[in-house]
Amino acid sequence: MVGIDWLRVGVGHPAVRDVLNIARNTAPNRFNLVVADGLWAVELALELGSRLDRFFYAPELVRSSNAAKVAIEAASGAYRAYEVSAKTMQRMSERDAPEGLLALVAMPRWDPAQIELSEDALIFVTDGIEIPGNLGTLLRTADGAHAELLVMTNRRTRMSHPKVFRSSKGMSLHVPHIEFGQVDDAISWLTERGVHIYLADTQDSVHYRTMDCSGRTAIVVGNERYGITNPWYGHGFPRVGVPMLGVADSLNVSISAAILAYEARARKHHRQRCSAAGEVDGRRVAAPRSARSRPR
């Protein structure tokens, strides 16, 4: 392509080996990169303004003018741009039919001190989630339900894990997320901002359709096997659960979170509609403002 300083490399090049190691999760990921494989992933990274560390292009595999256009944009914005053969791209890609575009993308970082929440914010809290696919699904659900933030405590899996990126459909690059080393630090951060905290727990819980979702609301979901850790239970936060009407005693954590999130969003939407008319539950309220979260 005219104007692009391509470096032609093969499968033995260190940049290609980096892609293989990150995609297979077989080596330390010191720079917190994810593999964006294919047109949709590279295009999404560009749309989100993500930083492309390295971009790889196999012209033999590109089949559309749009893909060629995206390749030029990606190569122009990447720190390094490489041209590889179709055979090399097939080694790098996990797709059955590689599309000739692949990038190493830097994960964004959010500073807790810079997070600004809307007055009606919905927040996910994950406590000890360890299966990357579940974390990715939670991120995708957070985006779908318009949750403004994901807070992590007792983290067991990396946000840059390749399965998190794939199962989130790239939303790990988009949904703001912050991490706290101690549960009490997360609780302090949330309560200082007036967030009402609900613990997703089927034991001694209220029905999820009775939640009061006025104001800022956080839903805490726990480890796939052991649930939410003890420090969360020492503050009197209400427990909310999805009733189990069959033999099983619980749902998959990401399914439970989706039900609770969409119920909370529906209730908030109802309040916002009433708010637009100037009244909720017989009293006048102010319309919520938009959230602003700054990645760094």
From TrEMBL:
<feature type="domain" description="MRM3-like substrate binding">
    <location>
        <begin position="31"/>
        <end position="103"/>
    </location>
</feature>
<comment type="similarity">
    <text>Belongs to the class IV-like SAM-binding methyltransferase superfamily. RNA methyltransferase TrmH family.</text>
</comment>
<dbReference type="Pfam" id="PF00588">
    <property type="entry name" value="SpoU_methylase"/>
</dbReference>
<dbReference type="GO" id="GO:0006396">
    <property type="term" value="P:RNA processing"/>
</dbReference>
<dbReference type="InterPro" id="IPR029064">
    <property type="entry name" value="Ribosomal_eL30-like_sf"/>
</dbReference>
<dbReference type="InterPro" id="IPR029028">
    <property type="entry name" value="Alpha/beta_knot_MTases"/>
</dbReference>
<dbReference type="InterPro" id="IPR001537">
    <property type="entry name" value="SpoU_MeTrfase"/>
</dbReference>
<dbReference type="InterPro" id="IPR053888">
    <property type="entry name" value="MRM3-like_sub_bind"/>
</dbReference>
<keyword id="KW-0808">Transferase</keyword>
<keyword id="KW-0489">Methyltransferase</keyword>
<dbReference type="GO" id="GO:0003723">
    <property type="term" value="F:RNA binding"/>
</dbReference>
<dbReference type="InterPro" id="IPR051259">
    <property type="entry name" value="rRNA_Methyltransferase"/>
</dbReference>
<dbReference type="InterPro" id="IPR029026">
    <property type="entry name" value="tRNA_m1G_MTases_N"/>
</dbReference>
<feature type="region of interest" description="Disordered">
    <location>
        <begin position="273"/>
        <end position="296"/>
    </location>
</feature>
<feature type="domain" description="tRNA/rRNA methyltransferase SpoU type">
    <location>
        <begin position="122"/>
        <end position="262"/>
    </location>
</feature>
<protein>
    <submittedName>
        <fullName>RNA methyltransferase, TrmH family</fullName>
    </submittedName>
</protein>
<dbReference type="GO" id="GO:0032259">
    <property type="term" value="P:methylation"/>
</dbReference>
<dbReference type="Pfam" id="PF22435">
    <property type="entry name" value="MRM3-like_sub_bind"/>
</dbReference>
<dbReference type="GO" id="GO:0008173">
    <property type="term" value="F:RNA methyltransferase activity"/>
</dbReference>
